[in-house]
Amino acid sequence: MTYDPSNIFAKILRGEIPSHRVYEDDAVVVFMDVMPQGPGHTLVVPKAPSRNLLDADPAALGPLFTVVQKVAMAVKKAFGADGVTILQFNEPASGQTVYHLHVHVIPRFEGIALKPHTGQMEKPEVLAENAGKIRAVLNG
Ligand code: 5GP
């Protein structure tokens, strides 16, 4: 299995299609998942190309998970969440649907189950509002 640069996240990283961005640095971009499993579901995406964790350069993982932690803390505060779920899928058998490494960061609330993976599209205005809440915490 090789990396295909026409995947949707590569297009988002290149700015060819829009996303609701919350954070960017030299190594990582963070944007809202368009089919969130809960309010504030974000995706942390390294700029370095790899299909998933299995073919990633280990040197990319430190910067990636530094941002995962930063975003986990930010979404917990932004949404008043009780906890945060981190998900990461590798190859179709695991449930991976987009073949550029990414980590899901999902605020969690006591007694509320996750919605299905790649379920319903969220309204753009809701995604924009939620991105704004996370940016406000990160920049605050
Ligand atoms: P995977 O199944 O590969 O772990 O997760 C891919 C995620 O990307 C899914 O949660 C899905 O909702 C999300 N997704 C799919 N297409 C797009 C898109 O065009 N833009 C954004 N922001 N998220 C997407």
TrEMBL record:
The active site is at residue 102. GO terms for biological process: nucleotide metabolic process. Residues 8-115 form the HIT domain. This is HIT family protein. InterPro entries: HINT, Histidine_triad_HIT, HIT-like, HIT-like_sf. It comes from Mesorhizobium neociceri. Gene3D superfamilies: HIT-like. GO terms for molecular function: catalytic activity.
